[in-house]
Write a structure and sequence with these properties.
The chain has about 280 residues and is α/β, with parallel strands linked by helices. About 25% of the residues lie in helices and about 25% in strands. It is globular and about 55 Å long.
Length: about 280
């Protein structure tokens, strides 16, 4: 395992037009760390991933990914995009989706045997062998997401960037995806950086959180950042953080807790599911 940080951000800031998304973001993410990016809609969570993917330049500061400036198509970086369903009539198999990760320009040419072996190893690693040869449009959301993770892992990256990988998944599939990511970071030393609106499914696994609100940033262990005092300071208004058994519920100022199908909703501090 490399001794260098997997991701380094030094006084990083990003503006889009006249709007400041975040600033003064300084941290090192070590190999094998699991870090969650939290915050309300529009706070710049997914945009941070785009910076690390080399798709957007920083407005200020510096960033390094695996010791190098972020760039498109880095073999050191695997990316799991937001969950989007495939057309049920799509004839491509799950295996074909994973193979795209090998055939992409960043990995260069491989012989047929090498390509097949790499794809098979990635499919096996995510537990998808039973359905890898079925049409991907007919798989469940959780099965599709496992194959997306296999596609991201097929190049054996040292950094895995995940953008809302739990979106629209039921509790069982959420748990399976999170456990898969956690096993990868423990066994391979891969740093995992995940954008999520749902902290509770990942809470037992994450080492630290990055919380983005209106240009402000808080970084630390979950127990350090996810407190009433810290979030109230970030939002500039009263925010209450409640712990219900092993779950966290965040309530914004002047809002009443609303219970609907085992979800707590909050309009001021985003929406966090108490699942």
């Amino acid at each position: 395992m490399s001794q260098r940080p997997a991701i380094q951000l030094d006084h990083a800031a990003l503006r889009r037009g006249d709007r400041l998304l975040w600033r003064d973001l300084t941290l090192d993410i070590e190999a094998g760390e699991f870090v969650a990016i939290l915050g309300p809609n529009g706070a710049g969570k997914s945009t941070l991933l785009k910076v690390l993917l080399g798709l957007l330049p920083l407005s200020e500061g510096h960033a390094l990914v695996a010791g190098k400036a972020p760039r498109r198509g880095s073999a050191e970086v695997g990316y799991v995009p937001q969950q989007k369903g495939f057309d049920t009539d799509l004839g491509a198999r799950g295996r074909d989706l994973v193979t795209l990760g090998v055939d992409g320009h960043r990995f260069g040419p491989l012989g047929a045997a090498g390509r097949a072996a790499r794809v098979e190893a990635a499919i096996t690693a995510v537990g998808a062998k039973a359905y890898a040869d079925r049409p991907i449009g007919r798989l469940s959301g959780g099965e599709q997401q496992r194959l997306r993770i296999a596609q991201a892992l097929v190049g054996d990256p040292s950094v895995l960037l995940c953008d809302e990988p739990l979106l629209s998944l039921d509790l069982n599939h959420q748990r399976g995806v999170v456990e898969l990511l956690d096993r990868r970071r423990r066994e391979a030393g891969t740093a995992v950086l995940m954008v999520t609106h749902e902290i509770n499914p990942v809470l037992p696994y994450v080492n630290r959180v990055i919380y983005l609100v209106d240009g402000r940033v808080a970084v630390g262990k979950p127990d350090e950042v996810l407190t009433s005092a810290r979030l109230s300071s970030l939002y500039g208004t009263r925010v209450d953080v409640l712990r219900v058994r092993d779950r966290i519920v965040v309530l914004g100022a002047e809002t009443e807790p609303h219970h609907d199908h085992d979800h707590f909703h909050d309009s001021d501090a985003g929406e966090w599911h108490a699942q």
